[in-house]
Specification:
35% helix; mainly alpha
């Protein structure tokens, strides 16, 4: 869990209860990058310098993301939803 990489680790239960209190989740799922950023800002305010949402997504900002990860940044990614609100996780059917 990302919290274990911070100077003030939090339990899964603490994060879950806070996310539920904000109405960000029902069962622990996170679909909104903005909700995830808000939760991270509040819960990790003492151990993170900055929480940043990449408006261009990972593909558009690939070099920046790689640079931040090599510097020790934590990357959080919400579940993707389609227009009908269904989780879409790309599946790989072929070996590369």
């Amino acid at each position: 869990m990302a919290s274990s990489c911070t100077s003030h680790p939090l339990s899964v239960e603490e994060l879950f209860q806070e996310a539920r209190a904000h109405g960000f989740t029902n069962h622990g799922e996170m679909f909104s990058v903005d909700d995830m950023a808000t939760l991270a800002q509040e819960m990790f305010q003492h151990s993170c310098r900055e929480v940043e949402v990449l408006p261009g997504g990972l593909g558009q900002d690939k070099e920046y993301v790689i640079k931040q990860l090599t510097r020790g940044s934590i990357l959080l990614i919400p579940y993707p939803l389609n227009i009908d609100g269904i989780i879409e996780v790309p599946m790989c059917s072929e070996r590369v």
